[in-house]
Amino acid sequence: MADNSVLTVSIVTPDGKVYECETATLVVVRTMSGQLGIMPNHIPVIASLEVDEAKVKHDGNEDEIAVNGGFVEFSDNNLTIIADSAEKQGDIDVDRATNAQHRAEEHLKEARQKHDDQDILRTQVALKRAINRIHVAKR
For the whole model, what pTM was predicted? Predict the structure, then answer.
């Protein structure tokens, strides 16, 4: 019989499973509508995710995962995040993320000079992802 006082959390990307926890007591994510906290026995939810961190509280600890878009689905105390990409805090290469941030900032300047709206939007997403990775890694 399943334990109704905990959540099972899985974060998957096109490359496979990034994170799993079977003893979570709280998951906090940022959806397109705002921040969402999910505890055991929460009503079922499906929501699109922003580029932000996912926080998973379990066993007196808190794990932080950089999640870059996707969606969250919750039902029957099982929470699944399907993300475009995701990295656990300890797996983030800060130097690589910082280089990506600098490249995106330079590219954004060029795109704005060219007034290329599509390129501006694409580059803003890349910049947001890099900043998110840095933020999560440095917590």
Answer: 0.85
